[in-house]
Design a protein that fits this description.
- By secondary structure, the chain is mostly helical.
- It has a single domain, classed as MetI-like (MetI-like fold), CATH 1.10.3720.10.
- It contains twelve helices and no strands.
- Helix 3 runs antiparallel to helix 12 and helix 8 packs antiparallel against helix 10.
- The radius of gyration is 22 Å and the shape is globular.
- It comes from Ancylobacter koreensis.
- InterPro entries: MetI-like, MetI-like_sf.
- Its main location: membrane.
């Protein structure tokens, strides 16, 4: 009789764990889903209800305030182009989903990154988990989202948060850990407490690195737009998904180009802010 190595029942263990979590926490997650879903839909409906030219002008003025006139003009042209393609509602749905997911990812990821930077033991636990999260296929994140939150934008938001959060955690931790040792020693010499050292020395110097993590988080969140459309997220990803189902190549390329335009706008804004912060820090240190 041939010797057989027993199979590890990993799939069964995952099913049991997911069933247990769904049974015990689905009530809470469905309540959260109702609140977050109402917020996403309300924000989207409010923006869609406004005249597109007014929203575009407001975005342009906001970007001009945060960046430069050139980036603001590019933003206005980009959004006007998306309006002309009759993808305005889908664009706003995707934009709201990306921004909400990014805000939640930052709210969760930055504190975890700070904790990981201050605790080597915690970092040794977090680092392998981040490696696994960043190598896991993005489709896998949709699996637990549906039992907890059902189909729709909230499930897509949950999957996007988990998928896009690792860069924020990793770069926040690395930014703090890479603070020059002489500055930390100087803060200790002046009798700074741990929190004073963190908020007055380490975090300010780590902001450019954290901004790079925010930029990556936004790009990853946007990359989930098409995948999240499979569970009813709508938006530009929904347009791509419908084009795939109907074999409408032109509509699919049009929606794909719209996603690229939105990605370029968000990328240029965050990169400019990061460069501006980095330049200010160099001036302060110089």
């Amino acid at each position: 009789m041939a010797f057989e190595i027993p199979r590890i029942p990993l799939a069964e263990w995952c099913d049991v764990a997911l069933d247990w979590a769904t049974e015990h926490f689905s009530g809470v997650t469905r309540a959260v889903s109702a609140v977050v879903g109402a917020g996403i839909e309300g924000t989207t409906d409010f923006l869609v209800g406004l005249p597109p030219w007014l929203v575009i002008a407001a975005f342009g003025l906001l970007v001009w305030r945060l960046t430069t006139a050139r980036i603001a003009l590019a933003t206005v042209i980009g959004f006007a182009f998306l309006w002309n393609l009759e993808l305005w509602r889908a664009t706003l749905q995707s934009l709201v989903l990306v921004l909400v997911s990014t805000l939640f990812a930052l709210a969760i990821g930055i504190p975890i990154g700070v904790t990981a930077a201050l605790s080597k033991r915690f970092w040794r636990v977090v680092a392998p988990a981040l490696d696994m999260m960043q190598t896991m296929p993005s489709f896998v994140y949709l699996i637990p989202a549906i039992p907890f939150f059902g189909l729709g934008a909230v499930s897509a938001c949950f999957a996007t948060i988990v998928f896009a959060m690792p860069p924020t955690i990793r770069l926040t931790a690395l930014g703090i850990m890479q603070t020059p040792a002489e500055l930390v020693e100087a803060a200790d010499a002046f009798g700074s407490s741990r929190w004073q050292k963190l908020f007055k020395v380490q975090l300010p110097l780590a902001i450019p690195t954290i901004m790079a993590g925010i930029n990556q988080t936004i790009m990853l969140a946007l990359s989930m737009v098409v995948i999240a459309a499979m569970i009813g997220a709508g938006g530009l990803g929904g347009e791509v998904w419908k084009a795939i189902q109907r074999l409408e190549a032109g509509q699919g390329f049009q929606a794909g180009i719209a996603i690229v335009v939105l990605a370029v706008i968000l990328d240029r804004i965050t990169q400019h802010i990061a460069r501006h912060i980095r330049r200010d820090r160099q001036i302060e240190r110089g």
